[in-house]
Amino acid sequence: MTDLIVLACLLALIQLWLVPAIFNLNNLKWMTSNRDEEPEVSANYKRARRAWHNLQETFPIFLVLAVLGVITGTDLMFEMQLWLVFRVAHLITYMASLNPLRTLSWIGSLVALIMMGLALI
Q1: Hey, which bits of the chain come out as E strands?
Q2: Residue 77 belongs to a domain with what CATH number?
Q3: What is the pLDDT along the chain (121 residues), one digit of tens a residue?
Q4: Among 1, 53, 80, 103, which residue's CB has the most CB atoms within a 10 Å radius?
Q5: How many domains does the chain have?
Q6: The domain containing residue 111 runs over which residues?
Q7: Hey, is 24 helix, strand or coil?
Q8: Burial track 15-48 (b if 16+ CB lie within 10 A, e otherwise)
């Protein structure tokens, strides 16, 4: 289960840094500066930031439940995998602007968190 926690942290780093950076390459000089001014950014960059903020809403809950699973010895592998798959799908559908699928992947990730919590009870 610890490998899934590490993968979830990797997803968080990718969403925090890599995806927004890819969509902000035209502002490379700004990214390596003191960032005193806000640059013009693309719609994709803004979408990447919103996807990151969305992940921040549930990532701490995932980490707490996952660590509790490790501590208590509760097998949460399936639920953790499910959450991770749905969160990757959410990022992809968010960036591709696939709104109905984006919502479904978000709901799926919440269901996976609920399943994790119920498995711990």
Answers
A1: none
A2: 1.20.120.550
A3: 899 999 999 999 999 888 877 777 666 666 566 767 776 778 888 888 899 999 999 999 999 999 999 999 999 999 999 999 999 999 999 999 999 999 999 999 999 999 999 999 9
A4: 80
A5: 1
A6: 2-32+39-120
A7: coil
A8: beeebbeebbeebeebeeeeeeeeeebeebbebb
Give the pLDDT confidence of 3-22 residue by residue, as tens digits: 999 999 999 999 988 887 77
3-state secondary structure of 69: helix
28 backbone dihedrals φ, ψ, rounded to 5°: -60, -40
33-36, Cβ contacts within 8 angstroms, sequence gap of 24 or more: none
